[in-house]
Amino acid sequence: MYELLDLLEIRYDYYEHPEAPTVEEAAKYWKDIDATHCKNLFFRNHKGNRHYLVILEHLQDLNIRDLEVRLKQGKLTFASPERLYKYLGLTPGSVTPFGLINDQAKHVHL
């Protein structure tokens, strides 16, 4: 990802912290970063043939039932770590929209 940003001459700041599976855990590392913070959630539909990366402002609550209705997908559940790695090349606690770079087949819906 950083090679791509450099190639495209996109300026960025780099902050590193351990995997953070919850907003509460991640907030420990955000205290000195003046930016909007997000939570990134990776779901699968009930058939397991569609996957969704959902990005919310970190203080926003998600009504999963409302999301299911909006997507017309029936029941949504969190996707397994194996699916997360298969489609986005990521591990739990490190979900990021930059993982979409790894989704060459454009399988995951944002």
Brief descriptors of the model:
single chain, 110 residues, alpha+beta, YbaK protein, 4 strands
Percentage of residues in strands: 15-25%
| DSSP summary: helix tally | 4
Query: Percent of residues in helical segments?
Result: 25-40%
Secondary-structure element series: HHEEHEHE
Distance linking N and C termini: 18 Å
Provide the CATH topology: YbaK protein
**Stretches with pLDDT under 50, minimum 5 residues:** none
Q: How many runs of DSSP E, i.e. beta strands?
A: 4
Number of domains: 1
Strand order, main sheet: write it out. Answer: 3-1-2-4
* SS-based class: alpha+beta
Largest sheet: 4 strands, mixed
The coarse overall form would be globular
Q: For this structure, what is the CATH class?
A: Alpha Beta
CATH architecture type: Alpha-Beta Complex
Rg from Cα: 15 Å
What is the overall pLDDT average? 92
Written overview of the protein:
The protein is globular and about 40 Å long. The protein is α+β, with helices and mostly antiparallel strands and 110 residues long. A four-stranded mixed β-sheet has the order 3-1-2-4. The protein has a single domain (2-109), classed as YbaK protein (Alpha-Beta Complex). It is built from four helices and four strands. It has helices at 2-7, 23-30, 64-71, 81-88; strands spanning 38-45, 51-57, 76-78, 108-109. Helices cover 27% and strands 18% of the residues. The chain starts with a helix and ends with a strand.
Short description:
The chain is built from four helices and four strands, in the order ααββαβαβ. It is of the alpha+beta class and 110 residues long.
